[in-house]
Queue: 2 jobs
Job 1
Amino acid sequence: MTGTLTISAARPRPAGLVARLIRRPSAVVGLALLGLVAGAGLAAPVLYPGDPLDMIGAPLQWPGMDPAFPLGTDMLGRDIAAGITHGARISLMIGAVATLVALVIGVGIGAGAGYYGGRVEAALMRLTELFQTIPPFLFTLAIVAVLQPSIPTIVLAIGLTGWPGLARLVRAEVLRLRDGELVQASIVIGASDARIIGLHILPNVLAPVVVSASILVANAILTESSLAFLGLGDPNVVSWGGMVGAGREVIRTDWFVAAAPGLAIVAAVLALNLLGDGLNDALDLKRALR
Amino acid sequence: MRMPAGGSAAIRRLAQMVSVVVGIAVVNFFLLHLAPGDAAQVLAGEAGSATPEYIAALRAQFGLDQPLGVQFAKYLAKVLTLDLGFSVRQGLPVAQLILDRLGPTLLLMGASLGFAVLAGGALGFVAARHAGRPLDTAISALALLFYATPVFWIGVMLIVVFSVWLDWLPVGGMAEIGTGRTGLAHLGDVLRHLVLPALTLALYYLAIYTRLTRAAMLEAYGQDYVRTAVAKGVRPRRIAYRHVLRNALLPVVTQLGLQLGAILGGAVLVETVFAWPGLGRLAFEALFQRDLNLLLGILLCSSVVVVLANLAVDLLYAVLDPRTARA
Amino acid sequence: MVSKGILGLGGAAFGLILTAGAALAEPARSGGTLTAIVQPEPVILTAALNTAAPTGVVSGTIFDGLVDYDRDLKPIPALATSWETAPDGLSLTFHLRPNVKWHDGQPFTAADVKWTLENVWTKIHPRNQVTFGKVTGVETPDPLTVILRLGQPSPAILSSLNSNGAQILPKHLYEGTDPLSNPYNNKPVGTGPFKFKEWSRGNHIVLERNPDYWDAGKPYLDRVVFRVLPDAAARAAALEKGEAQYAPLSPVPLKDAARLGGLPNLRVETTGYEWLSPWLFADFNVERGPLKDVRVRRALAQAIDRAALARVVWFNFGVPATSPVPSTLTDFHAKDTPAYPFDTKRAEALLDEAGWARGANGTRFSLEIDYIPYGDDFKRTAEFLKASLRRVGVEANIRSQDTPSYTRRIYGDRDFDIAITWFAAFSDPQVGVTRAYWSASVGKNIPWTNGSGYRNPEVDGLIAAVQGEADPAKRRALFRRFQEIVLTDLPTLPLLELKFFTVEAVGLRHGARGDQVYGSFRDFRFDGPAPGQSRASAN
């Protein structure tokens, strides 16, 4: 939209990226936290082989009351620790897949608009504006309510409403690249549009997109928890949002039921944002879109 | 990039508004009709019992017995003549319902955004001036923490601490009812009710503006004209305020325009937790009651607000950055 | 709580009925503002046109019924001072209270009753079209007498005459209009103890004392404010702080209710809901898959530990149900009906017998569970059923949806296996229970009717017979037979008799009628200083 959004052209080589990344304390903390969350998710089937939705204990046991349930049990006597670890898989999956949906749409529309310009650009950007004008959370709510809440519809709804910022970012990047020497030279030698976009443009847009993606994953996890708070979760799987949503009824008496998954959400969102910041710095992007 | 100013911007925004309004009408009309059940069924369901005659009477009354295409054509024709129609569920004109709720929502959004921009800007400014030092780290960490905590969670916790434990502020609502307060006393009452919801909604955006301001300031510090100023021996404080902050405000203002739509979404959660009689909650309820006219009306109004805000942003840009005015 | 005998005597004797422990000699304290919580916000404020619970709560104190109901669900005089049923059961005469005025000053007369019956109850009221279905004519020989002529005896009418069951609208404001869109639905004019003052949508509804109320000296309060608080935690906090003093219809999470009840300033009351008698049940779709087989339905019934469901999910705000007719309906509830005690071994044996042996993965078959989206208690009930069925090898998938999607799925599309919901049984099973079994409503997309798809001509015959039977003993026998059959065929599994509750300030006193939740606030008053009192006296 404006000149301040342009991102500097210098791109480090990947090998240097890791080195740069681990020199940033925020990135290290973010990576460590994310590793912890992902590790918990990976270890879940080993640590808690049963179904985390099984009612295996007395309901509402406080953490520490029974060594078998270090984080206590919820209203139906389900193990909260098992829920947190299994929930890590679901919540990260929701974040990742929803982001993928947003990426496909956002990069597609942004690249199309930036590369082709003219009427295509006008039409695509009008569409983007339309999506940006409808309050995104309200739109997500509407889609989930209409399609009825389940993991696939939640993921789809978050993805469908999450892309406009990305499209703008990609368009701005593509606009800059399109007028660059490399692309102009390719056009002169008669390379096809697909080839130019695939070979010369998208790889160069990758860096800011990756940074945005880490933030989008974080936002998707937050959105899922907000949906669950409003009662639009999927009761067949454990997700952190669903756990917080279930725990809010006993928040005054047994706050740990909502606190534990709430902290897990904070940790994951924090990790992804720290990582995004770190990547941003390491890739020497001046600013990525939020 | 091009950034039209003045009259042409207004015309462009107006054209944009019309196409967005039509777009929203189309998207939502058909989206809501994908949903099983209609308003007649909601009413019948809420009634606890019903007969086929009762449902048929409701349907005929609401015009839901007509073909979808006819319903849509009628709706679109009305929207284009600025008639938002009648809420079948609430038995009142949509425009009246929205006007009743618009004030509280604008107050909540204005207070939250105002606080977020001012406090976030200040924090970001301080952080940027202490970049890399502990104060910067502390501010950045705090901002991230606010950003990462679910809004509804903050809201519920604020109620527990400030309303129940400390008993400083009311639990919810917008004013004490039936006190007959007027003038300043009434204003004070509303402000007391506003504190917690506005703070809840603000913390998330505070985090965003802190980060944004900090980043924009740091970027501005790298610009040639700032370096020149430093080389010329201008005092750092003067540089920070006169050169850097002014330029750092541009992205903040841009973000403000983009964020208005998002903040109404956040208002759904905050208004639910604090019983704030605003548009967000009204929209949420309309959705579940299949109150199509009302939901569309709210979405249209909010999009008009967003478009107008973007127009204001364009104009503000011209003021803040003389370069765009020449473009 | 209340001595029952004195209640039947008449409206004039009603003034001094107090909650337990109250000294009768203590003068009734007058004045003050009662802040109540109503959730969700009502759609309109006339229960004659919308029988949803929140409308009933607000509307119940703006309007009066012909009668109220005591704790034993016997009618007691309100707008009707007395009534007689003819010996042949074919006419019903009401004598109306003289000198009653609508809030706009017009007199209340028999013409209002006749008009409402002919134009609202039998035309658009969702329940009364059946209840008053046998009315062939209404006569008003004088302004204070109403005679209903009946084609068949209709004893259920006497169970549905309070301000919620059969609300009377002012003829002079409704005649010649479309009742459903009459503007007075949003600013009602009634005869009740409180007058409508203001409704700020999404915010509050304010009612003011009716100084010309027929029950002299009442109401005691100056004003009633209903606040709309959508979040349960905020409702609990408002009650805890004393910002609200009365919140009916289970306003807070069940777990929180126990906590609030333990606070010195609040009490949790489960009386006042007898007229509703809510029951929780699971409809089995008898037209689909394994559930077509009654053995499977019985097996699933025995796989569910209803006592644990009451304890764990409903925090004992419910007791296991043995019949669709709740035990609170003492006249009609049948004991010794076919029972399905919790016994997973028996359940597994029945499933094996029905040909659904466990497969290689331990699963016999899978099905879908849908639940009424009225709160987390119902969702957790679904989760409880899912976990219970899993133990006997039946895999369940829970589906969430909003109310219109739910009613469409269950009562229209019939695309479900097990549906969890609740009905109000009301004081006569004819009004609230038989609708779940009557075959004529299957698949007609009418919410809260026969969800299971059960069709049994004998049951339909019994349902028709109880409607036209005047002899109480014969009706009891018919209902007993009805319960035996539907509990043998088990298209619908009664789970719990729910106990709704009210959270109220300990200083708040009121009578305890069986329909108090939808009743008027005429005897509500505060013990000691009332909220808003000082301001009222200062004015």
Job 2
Amino acid sequence: MIEKTLDSLVLEVKEMSPKLGSRAEFDSFKSTISGPKGKLTDVMKLMGKVPKEEKPAMGKKINEAKQVIQASMDEANKRIEESELLSSLGPTIDPTLPSPDSEKGVLHPIAQVRDQIVELFNRIGFAVVEGTELETEYYCFDALNIAKDHPARDMQDSYFLPNAIQMANVSKESDEKYLLRTHTSSVQIRTLLKEKPPIRIVAPGRCFRRDTPDATHSANFHQIEGLYVDKNVSLTDLKATLDYFVKMVFGDSAKTRLRPSFFPFTEPSFEMDFYSPNLGKLSNQWLEIMGCGMVDPEVFKSVGLDPNEYSGYAFGMGIERIAMILQGVDDIRYYYQNDIRFLRQFSD
Amino acid sequence: MKISYNWLKQYFKSEVSSEAILDALPLIGFDVEETEVLGPPQMEQVVVGKVIEFEAHPNADRLRLCKVKTAEDEASHSIICGAKNFNAGDRVMVALPGAVLPGNFKIKKSKLRGIESEGMLCSAKELNIGQNHDGIMVLDSSIALGTELNTLYSDTDIIFHLEVTPNRVDVLSHIGLARELVARFGGSVDVPKIKSNLSTVDTLEPNTTLKSLMVEATDICPEYSAICIEGVQVGPSPEWLKQSLESVGLRSINNIVDITNYVLHETGQPLHAFDSAKVSGQSLLIRHAFKEEKIKTLDGNTHSLNDSMVVIADDAKPVAIAGVMGSADAEVDESTQSIILESAYFNPSSVRKTARKLNLSTDSSYRFERGVDPQGVQYGIERACDLILEVAGGSLLGKRVQIGSVDKSTESVEFSPEAMRSFIGFSVQDTEVQSVFESLNFKVDKSSESNWLITPPTYRKDVTRPVDLYEEFIRIFGTDKIPAQSISVNGINASDHPIYQFNDSVGTYMTGKSFNEAFLYTLRNQDEVAFFQGKGHEETLKLKLENPLQSDQSHLRNSLIPGLLDVLDLNLARQNLTTQFFERGRVFRVLEGQLVELISVGFIALGKNLDRKWLEREKFDFYSAKACTEDLFHLLPFKVKERKWSPIETSEFWQPMHSAQAGDLLKEGFEASVGLLNMKNVKECWGLSYPIFAGSLLIQTELFEKEMKRFRYQALSNQPASMKDLSLVVNQSVLASEVLKTIKGFIEQSIESFACESVEVFDVYEGEGLEEGKKSFAVSMKFRAQDRTLKDKEVNALFEAVQSAVLEQTDYQIRK
């Protein structure tokens, strides 16, 4: 009797379980088998009435039947779990559709060139210092040996602030005027006054000249100033540093030359030119990229350093100029329009 | 400055080619901005012709129809010409069909007003021979017909446009540049010899043209020299003189004036000639101008002078502004019979101030203000005197008067070759050093082997220190001889400034958040700056520049946001649908009456998705902007403990109650604003009618000087946490921060043997089920003990204490 019931039960489970399509069907079928009132439960209850001597054999039979039932049910369960997982995944993806999320933003091309230059100087031991965009005449001119009535002041017409203005975080030397700095060279003075040599710095920043804007002049522009002051710094050191810089930016095929020039704060002073065979339209011609020279003894005196003890070199370059050469941009004003199609051209 | 190669060769007689000179000039410190070739290029079919006859063009009064022969035995050409400066029989330059004139101007037969012209009669300018374009060239009648242009004008000239740095006034002349070329290439400078044998007196011996000559302003005019010449024939200059001046861009005026200009460009010494008949009272006085004294200068402008300026004056009026320009009243012209020639040394800074004040820069003032060669004053006047006698005739009246004498001494500079070698960083022989200095005309005294005495000439006032000598050495020796070397770096204890590091991480963060960086002008217009405080406000007034160039760039910016709106506007106008931008930069504010430069980060984002996408994403909203701003705080290198956000209640720039502010520039050193921009005003001023969200962070620079943040390990508890939620009904105006503060206070009052890890709002609700004007905050609290699993009992006790405190001490209701 029990055996017969067991056999038909196994048969039923074997037949039914592959047909169970959902968790609900599975659960309700399962309860008809192994639930409190399930068929297998009922059979188990009958075990009590089985004569003692038949019990081991019967027990074995029941166990075998249970295992078969369990295996079938497990298989059904696994199958249903898998299909449940599949249905929870939603529709399959189309990997060729674009992501609707916004793409990453881009750094401004001037910032990229600035960072590249800073990084190159970082690597040879120059640390970045910051200066203010508002400066005083003393730090921008006088301390740099640009005397009040010196024609060199003609070279840079400046934006001034009215005399009545006082600044909280830009110190004055005496009662000189405030102005928007015309070059980053003012940072040389502030740094030399604050720190003791050896000093090896670069100072990137925004500068201003009172020029009518055109393709090569912008109301504000950016420079990077470099300064190295120590004992026994020589002209040969200056050349080595700038040669390294030019080759790193424009490639090993670039040649350089130092063209004697004049700046009140360096002596001797030079313009550095470079010559490159692979710069598109600008290939194979000498292009000016920066001013440089050995720190003038007058500058050392104005910051209280003994020019007989210390020497140093300084250089300054226009970031826009280098960017324009590198990126092939022919009008500086594009950099300040910020058309996204322009900005994106310099990032991948 | 323009230098003519032909002119230069008179003083620099050398085999060196113009190309070699051109290559060398930049390397000895004179950048060549441009070169220009004067004189005709090779031209075919441009020959000498003879005008046989002409008549008026039947269809155009202003044109002449000419018969021109270019060979005696050939038929004449019929050529139409617009010029009128020729007669029948004149020799002219004819461009026949097939000729190509400078500027690729091709000559061919063509009809002019119905009549065919078989060529063109040319002006000097059209053939690149001179500047003259007033009429066609009329040539000497002895020249054979058919002579080719290039046979007639074989001479070409090259003009160098040189950039001369302000320290090198000595090179602002042809002789000056010749000296430099001699230093570079060797040889010697051929300085023209003075022919007239002039003796010098220190006071004027009155003569028929000049009775009195005095210098009153001796401080500004330490040396004044004059020569009187009578019986001069004023007229057009000879061809060589005309050509020389025209080649350097000057207009020929008459022989006397031309000679003064010629000598200026030859020697660098400015000169002036007065018509003595126009000098009232036959007396000249060099004095300070009177206040508001008027003078009409040669350029036709009238200037009002002041007493800091110096003039050369006769009895009645000033006849020249010292060192700057002469007066039209004493001008030398065709009627002039006798002249007073002037050469002087004027104080550089005085001339500079005068020229600046009058906004009048001349070839004279340009040289005087840089300091002319003290030795050149005498040479200049003698040279001009020679040329005048040669070109314009006349005879000298009396002697050369020289009042005062400018210091002509030279000072020697101590020079150690060893110190220079250490400065330049490579080895050179003493003999090489010496020969460079001698090539520059510097006297070298080597009495002491290790400490030389170098004496530069009077025209090199710029060389006063050893380092100036190093520069001169390297300039002439050649910078290309500085050895290439690898960099030797010794370590220095310094790292990049925290402001730079902060900006660097902001760049990385913001681009990662899909913001694009913009660079905007620091100078903005008044209306934009006034947005934040109003036009009459102290801040707006104090941000104004003293000397703006353009009205739309008159003020320092006090925020980065307006510029970013310009960027958004520009991009949308160009159908670029990118809507998120940021800038890192400096802005300016007024705090307690003082201007402060601040570090700033600003960003904007459109609160609307403009481009259609196949899958819609969440729009940018207030809380997106707030999250960005909060993250920026975390990028700061120093700790900002707490940002107390409060809604902005009134603002022209921000949308009230949809924007918030935290921090205080004065008390905390920072200020953050975030939220929706004022919809009405943004539409009015930028024409943008979208919801635009923005964030702005301003930080005082001094905060970056503070101690930077450090992070230290704290022991963690391994025990499980216990959570409690509390739902509170509050008035709609109550802020989350207020509720959290209250609850935290209550917890602190009752908590004892364990810790509260966090108290957070996790749900906000208003609407159905709640009274009008009320909202509910659901707050979750998290507790944990260091040493044990918390028991329900102790957490519940705390929770109950908090609840009863809420009921007793606040008007919040607890929602069950």
